[in-house]
Amino acid sequence: MPKPIRTHSKRTLTVSPPASLGYRMPAEWEPHAATWLAWPHHQGDWPGRLEPIPWVYAEIIRNLAQHERVELIVNNTSAEKQARKLLQRADAFSKNIHFHRWPTNRVWTRDSGCIFLTKCGAGAPARERHAAQTEAGLARIVRTILEKTHFNFEPPLREREEFQSPLASRTGHDFAFEPALSKRSAPKGADKRQRKSRASTPESPLLALKFRFNAWAKYSNWRHDENLGTQMAKAARAHEIRPVSAKTRVVLEGGSIDVNGRGTLLTTEECLLSKVQQRNPHMTRVHYEKLFADYLGAPNVIWLGRGILGDDTHGHVDDLTRFVSPDTVVTMVEPNTKDANHAPLRANLRRLQAARDQDGKPLTIAEIPMPQPVVFEGRRLPASYANFYIANGVVLAPVFNRPNDRIALNTLEQLFPRREIIPIYSGDFIWGFGAMHCMTQQQPMSRG
Q1: Which residues are known catalytic residues?
Q2: What is the band of 120 on the pLDDT scale with cuts at 50, 70, 90?
């Protein structure tokens, strides 16, 4: 085995694709160990309307903490004290809340955080394959990786800030496996700091995909958020993987994809293939499909077209269409033919009707009408009922004090008969261009 090449005290292994090792991105309705959130602080996200936002967070955390652990990221000690005080006043504080003092630029952990993968047995249905891996099992996996692979150099971050355009014919992947720092290789004091912010229960083995984050190729303040995925992975004791395509690290936000845990993934052409807010100039449709198959265990990709008006991410799918079971999606429609969202949502519906799942079967499609327009200071906001979050025992559903709220809630109640549907008023929250799904990132349970 070649001698390891180390840079910035980190090691990168070239390994087999996660999917070939039996890993996949589980569906959101599968059991969670925790939900990750970041406490709101950036005035620029809600200019003039930041004051009510922490109270919305308190309501969300109060409902989540009754069912699963909440990993809450705060900027510093002062922010933690303020959050604790507000949560106590709102009767939302719980021992099920664990704080992490990490600086962030924004709160949208769906996009800036890592994406966790779990191990499953090949060939079995996802709900039957969600099995636990013991520490001994993890050790066997790591030994196999070490025996079959070699160390590969990854240049320092400052040399990788700008995208590099490789030859268009280069469609292969390198699989970067970022092991946790050992006591021997960790900087002095790192082990103590890591233990202090560790997510509480060691449900690993988990893998954590750490995609690059550049604030949707739109905003300039993202350097803190770019570190968030690595911090989450270490706290969860997950092994970090940094996906690459054609030897270039990939930018991908969690809100741009949705999976059924069985091998099918939803995304949009507007977000991933458009030259507007272009994340990965070197990648084509073929590159993305290989990426999803190799890293997420989702070789069957359903491409939708355009997103909704007002979405500053330029087409995230979590405002459009979501899986609610392995064979069922809920999708937004706009009945008003004069509304700007009518045509693109109708086109997306047609694509869904023609789509097939990983087994070649048509999807069951539930339709929800868009909320009547939510406008503030003359701007149409990206209010959508599709931006719900599925947690253990509950579904957090954004509502906007519009007549279609009741239709949306009734539909979700039918789709999730075993979960409580919790309406969360998001009329102020949507001024930040996101809602329940944008602000959350699930950490799946890694046990049987």
Answers
A1: 438
A2: confident
Question: Would residue 2 count as lying in a domain?
Answer: no
Per the domain annotation, does 247 fall within a domain? yes
Q: Is residue 3 part of a domain?
A: no
Q: Is residue 165 predicted with pLDDT exceeding 50?
A: no
pTM of the model: 0.81
H helix or E strand, kind and range, residue 322: strand 321-325
Q: Looking at the predicted structure, is the pLDDT value of residue 102 above 50? A: yes
Give 196-232 pLDDT, tens digit per residue.
Answer: 555 544 445 899 999 999 988 778 788 889 999 999 9
Both tokens assigned to 441: 């990132």
Give the total number of structural domains in the chain: 1
Average pLDDT over residues 179-197: 45
Q: How much is the pLDDT for 371?
A: 98
Could you tell me the CATH number of the domain that includes residue 230?
A: 3.75.10.10
- Three-state secondary-structure class, residue 280: coil
Rounded CA-CA distance 241/307 in Å is 29
DSSP 356: B
> What residue ranges in 234-316 does DSSP mark as E strands?
239-245, 248-249, 258-259, 264-268, 300-304
The answer to which of 34-38, 170-174, 376-380, 416-420 has the lowest mean pLDDT is: 170-174
Q: Is 390 helix (H, G, I), strand (E, B) or coil?
A: strand
The rounded distance, in Å, linking the Cα atoms of 78 and 101 is 10
List, in order, residues 6 or more apart from 335 with CB less than 8 Å away. Answer: 342, 369
d(CA 230, CA 11): 14
Report the C-alpha gap between 391 and 315 in whole angstroms: 24
Mean pLDDT of 302-317: 95
- Per the structure, the complete domain to which residue 295 belongs is given by 13-444
Among 246, 243, 239, 238, residue whose Cα is nearest residue 254: 243
Sheet-wide strand order for 420-425: 389-391, 394-399, 420-425
Per the domain annotation, does 5 fall within a domain? Answer: no
Which residues share a beta bridge with 72? 37, 99
Report d(CA 134, CA 146) in Å as an integer.
19
Residue 179: pLDDT above 70?
no
> Helix (H, G, I), strand (E, B), or coil: what is residue 202?
coil
Residue 362 · residue 355 · CB < 8 Å: yes
Instruction: Please check whether residue 357 is in contact with residue 363, taking contact to mean a CB–CB distance below 8 angstroms.
Output: yes
